[in-house]
Amino acid sequence: MLELSKIQVIRPYEAVIMMDSDASEQDQKDLFKKNKSIIESFKGEVNHIDTWGKRKLGNPIANKNRAIYFHTTFTASPECIAELERTMKINDKVIRAVHTRLSDKTPLSKHMEKFKEQLAETLRKEKEKEAKIKARKAARKAGM
User: Fold this and answer.
1) How many structural domains does the chain have?
2) Are residues 75 and 127 in the same domain?
3) From its phi and psi, is residue 135 left (phi > 0), alpha (psi between -120 and 50) or beta?
C-alpha cells in the first residue's frame, strides 16, 4: 500500500514581506538567506526576490507608518510555508508576511510576466491620477 504521508508535493508560491523601515541591509540579507535555506531544506527553490523599497503603509502596523517591501516567488511544500511563517513571526524586523499559493497550471515565469504587467498598469494609472490633480490645481490657480 502506498503511504500518502511520505509524498511531498511541491507547489508554486509568492510572498510579500514587509520589514521594519529601520532594518539594516544586513538584516534584510540575513532574512532572505534564512528563508532560502528553509525553502531548500524542504526541496523547494527560490525563483526570484524583488525589492520594492520603503513605502508608506495603508494602515499603521505596530505604530509603524513605513516598511521595506519585498516580493518573492518560489516553489515549496505546504510544510515549508508553515515553517517560513513561524520563523518570520519570531523575527522582530518582519512586520507582516503574506504567502499565496499560485496556480499549478501557470509556470512561475508566466506569473511574473503577468505580475509585472499589472505593476506597470498600476503605475500608469497613478501617474494619470497625479496629472489630473495637478491640472485641477493649475485650473483653480488660473481661475483666482
Assistant:
1) 2
2) no
3) alpha
